Amino acid sequence: MSCDICGRPHHAQRLPFLCAVDARNHCYDGRMKNAFALLENEKLQKEIGEIVKSSENEIRPGDSAQNHTIAMRYSLSEQRAAEDRTSRIIEQADRLKAEVAAAREEIERRRAVIARRKAELASASNGLGARRARQLEDTERSIQSLNFKWERSADGMARTRAFLCMEAAKLFGLRRLKKSNSPSPYEYRIGSVTITDLSSMHSASPEQLSTWLANVAHILSLASYYLAIRLPAELTLPHRDYPRPTIFNLVSSYRHDDVAFPGTSPSSHFGGGPDGSNNNAPPGPRPRPLYVDKTLPVLAKEDPATYSMFLEAVTLLAYDVSWACCTQGVSIGDRSVFEDVCHIGRNLYNLLIGQQLLGVPTGKRYPSPGSVDKKDGQEDAASMTSWVGRYSHGTARNFLGGAEGADFVKSIKLPGPLKLADKLKTKLSSEVTAPDWEVLQEDAWAEVEDEADGIDARQDKMKNGKVAGDSNKEPRAVSGSGTSGWTKVKSR
User: Fold this and answer.
1) For residues 366 and 57, which has the higher predicted lDDT (pLDDT)?
2) Which residue from 151, 160, 200, 443 has the least number of CB within 10 angstroms?
3) pTM for the whole thing?
4) Would you give the distance in Å from CA 235 to the centre of its chain?
5) DSSP state, 228?
């Protein structure tokens, strides 16, 4: 609020609300005018008196009455003007006095309000530190209770996820069997099909490879759904107009629209018109097939490109299984060794069944609400008996897409799928160069049977004594019994 007299804004210390000096100065203006008016009136009175005196001395008998009347009227008018100015000055001074009194009353009222507020603030501030400490303690206790409930809920969800994965694996018939007289102590089967070791895929039939790869892709997709994790290499299961499973590489995963099945045209798959309206569309990513129609040695000779893509698909599937194991705390051995990373059967079994059998219950991994817990209410990783279901992309706690989850994923150092595919191709090609067995067609076996029949005839003649002198030169017999008609020993 500004001063009505001086017009300056109010300040509590430097400029009072209504300064008495300004009021006095304002009154001085009227007083000075009144003084000037009185001096002027006195001067005029003196002049009038002198004029009257001089006029009385010089006045003529006929003009005395008229001049006296004029002088009286003039003096009366001057007196009335002075009185009018004086009354206005007095009225203005009274008004200023009333305003000053009202301002003082307002100041007193505001002082009383400020004093009352100070008293209320002092009473409210009394014991404020204790109240703040109590509120802080209550807040920390509620946070600990929420963390306890959150951790307990997350633990229950993790156990549920692990249980669902194990039950799904059991329904698919995933099991581990002991092997005797074999370099590897166990073999892993899904249903009635053995999960072939990647380095021995050349000896497997295409039906066996396609069957166990399809089953592994299906159960891995189901497990990723239960665990709420997004695999680095996207799997595509069979669906309408897509009869067999495929897998995308790491660059193309989750960055594409609908893709046609390999070997079919996109226009026929998505209903493109005959006018070729989809011909100008850019080609999408090419999925890698998780199936074969021929044995791998034949496929490598007839279609090297498809052979390379199939090996890349298998290594991408193994990479997905190993990555899922690492995110769920399941050990796969040495992460830099090809045999440990690409052991699909063992890693998948340990992820879905083996870890639950070893850990039994996941144990209590959350603190009590009254205790002072560690950061985020979590215990050290060493005290956890099982991590399966803990980290995921579907929950806010232990979120793999957050900052801590991204750091955790970056800490998983696995060889790239291309490097794994190159190593697998090298292993398989080294076995192809010098095989102990070779695949023969039916025509070749016809010649072998003819030779075997001739040798049997010679042996019969030797037994009957019709052939002499051949006892020391008996040829080695090649019997066709015990073979299935598709292998023979190759001479070294």
Assistant:
1) 57
2) 443
3) 0.60
4) 22
5) T
